[in-house]
Write a structure and sequence with these properties.
heterodimer; A: alpha/beta; Metallo-beta-lactamase, Chain A; 7-stranded mixed beta sheet; 8 helices; B: alpha+beta; Immunoglobulin-like; 9-stranded mixed beta sheet; 3 helices; 17 strands
Chain lengths: 317, 274
């Protein structure tokens, strides 16, 4: 039996989606519809971000954001890339449940995963991250704010600020949501120096943030060696599904990791050979890893930077 | 009443004057052009600088991907014969525009193509300049424009704990040329050092990370000076230099680096080959 309340909410959401899908009515007002989320396993909801760089048009909606609903409370895992997207994620949660939002977890420091945190301040949750997240995000805060304000434009950036974690995860830790727990595992430097793997133990769903990119070219902001080593370890894990930071809502281990392993291995192999041959960083950026050019979206935006980072790391071997 | 009016008029006049000064001092499209005469005066006084005469060539990336790690290469073509005295690099719009000055010694070599490469931070759209002083004391300049921004305030250490653990680690590599009789050989010096520029704010502590950077580097070949470099924080984290030197007998390189804290780091090339 549907309550009248539920009918009206469903009708409202459907109408909102229909409006958003109508090309002539693309303008989305400030009180926008809730974010589009899919229940990928019982009580596990994922929103898929676009394969784009931040722009006024996408309002920072470029990464995946998730939430898990327990019998007592809700945990959010990554909050998208602006205050307005964070608010729409919160609206999506409120369309599903009125249980308190107890935890807001960030899988790592990047702005497209943390800038929506501010929309949850009203819930007074515990903000959770790897024990190095606060330092790494803290030292980058000003440049992240400046860059994202410029990329998003004033309207989409409105209200955005950096919210640092209040709970630092230094060793494997569980969080209780009532009848289900989340396992939080901090990782050694890989995609960044503050990657956190979150597992919903009830459905064996792994949220691995930007340790996994699919379709969107990976970006190296930690250690290419550490990342490749971690991917080897992750390939041995058993999980019902993984949620990547960029890519489809869910994927399967270990095959989900393979394109990324191939990409990072291609860069590492080419760069190591060029270092042996006495080539310079500038020379490496013109050739290394270009065999991967057609396999990824946003290759032109991030690849040369990845080679630069890999070269600066691998030349110390 | 009249006094008050006069006083008001005077203060308005002063305010207007102050306002016009603000306008004059405000950054404009021409601001960058304004910096160079001052830098030139401070560094070279009234000496003549010949521009773009081909004696010094500057290579910069066509597109800057990481403003905290921008590779720069200066080449001195083989047509330039004889010794070179000094090389100075500027990034006009950086907080400290001077990147480095190299004063060359007897082991810097003559003949062949001489070169110097490093990686720099670029804080804003800016001209980059290389000024070469040749044996006769004449100055030769080339410049390039770089569209990069944010390299100085941006925190670029990807794994600060690993870098701190390795601080002072130095690698000195020689690249033995295919033809060992080549008059100039190439080498590389890299040192693990944060080169903190004092402009990175830690919002957790609301404090700037104190400046600490490589101030001096002396490179010798078989005991003779190749060059002494005076550096600034425009050089990227984990400073990295590639350069040429004149072929000698043993071709052993010794490197001594001193940072702003007075800490000394020493390195040597392997006795044989690479």
């Amino acid at each position: 039996m549907c309550t009248p309340n539920l009918i009206s909410r469903k009708t409202f959401l459907t109408a909102g989606l229909a409006l958003a899908a109508t090309p002539f009515l693309r303008y989305i007002p400030a009180q926008a519809a809730a974010m589009d989320v899919t229940e990928v396993a019982p009580g596990v909801f994922v929103h898929q971000g676009r394969y784009e760089v931040q722009s006024p048009g996408n309002r920072g909606d470029i990464s995946n954001a998730s939430f898990v609903v327990g019998s007592e409370a809700v945990a959010v895992i990554d909050t998208s890339g602006s205050a307005v997207m964070g608010q729409e994620l919160r609206d999506a949660i409120r369309a599903v449940t009125n249980k308190p939002i107890r935890y807001v977890i960030n899988t790592h420091m990047h702005p497209d995963h943390v800038l929506g945190n501010v929309a949850f301040k009203q819930d007074k949750p515990t903000f959770v991250g790897h024990y190095k997240l606060a330092r790494s995000l803290g030292t980058r805060a000003n440049s992240y704010i400046t860059a994202n304000k410029q990329m998003l434009g004033d309207a989409a950036f409105e209200g955005t600020e950096i919210v640092l974690p209040t709970l630092a995860i230094k060793e494997a830790t569980t969080l209780d949501l009532g009848d289900r727990t989340l396992l939080l595992e901090p990782q050694a430097t890989a995609h960044t120096d503050n990657d956190l793997i979150v597992t919903d133990t009830k459905t064996n769903t792994l949220f691995i943030g930007d340790l996994l990119f699919s379709v969107h070219v990976p970006t190296i902001d930690g250690s290419i060696k550490g990342w490749l080593a971690l991917l080897d370890e992750m390939g041995k894990r058993k999980a019902a599904r993984v949620v990547p930071g960029h890519g489809p809502k869910t994927m399967e281990l270990p095959q989900a990791l393979e394109p990324e392993q191939r990409y990072l291995s291609a860069i590492a192999g080419d760069v190591r050979r060029q270092i042996m041959e006495g080539k310079t960083l500038a020379e490496a950026t013109r050739t290394a890893g270009f065999s991967e050019k057609d396999a990824w979206k946003l290759f032109d935006q991030y690849h040369v930077r990845n080679v630069t980072a890999a070269f600066a790391e691998l030349e110390w071997e | 009443m009249l006094t008050a009016f006069k006083s008001l008029a005077r203060s308005c006049g002063l305010a207007a004057l102050a306002a016009s000064m603000v306008v004059l001092a405000s950054p404009s499209a021409h601001a960058e052009e304004d910096v160079w005469p001052i830098l030139k005066e401070q560094t070279f006084g009234d000496r003549t600088i010949i521009e773009e005469d081909g004696l010094v060539v500057l290579e910069t990336p066509s597109k800057v991907e990481d403003a905290a790690l921008v590779p720069l290469t200066v080449r001195i073509p083989p047509s330039v014969r004889g010794k070179i005295k000094s090389l100075t690099l500027f990034i006009d719009n950086n907080p400290d525009p001077k990147v480095a000055t190299l004063n060359f010694g007897p082991a810097a070599g003559t003949g062949g193509e001489r070169s110097f490469s490093t990686r720099v931070r670029v804080d804003n759209f800016s001209h980059v300049r290389a000024i070469l002083e040749t044996e006769d004391g004449s100055l030769h300049m080339t410049k390039k424009f770089l569209a990069a921004a944010g390299g100085c305030a941006a925190m670029q250490a990807k794994d600060p704990d690993a870098d701190t653990a390795d601080m002072g680690k130095m690698i000195v590599r020689k690249f033995t040329p295919a033809l060992q009789s080549s008059p100039v050989w190439a080498a590389q010096v890299m040192v693990k050092h944060p080169n903190h520029n004092g402009m990175q704010l830690n919002i957790n502590t609301a404090e700037f990370i104190p400046a600490q950077y490589v101030k001096e580097m002396t490179v010798t070949r078989d005991g003779e000076l190749v060059f002494k470099l005076d550096g600034t924080f425009s050089i990227s984290t984990n400073p990295n230099f590639r350069f040429t030197f004149g072929r000698g007998e043993e071709n052993n390189l010794d490197v001594v680096i001193t940072d702003t804290d007075g800490t000394e780091f020493k390195g040597q090339s392997q006795p044989k080959g690479s």
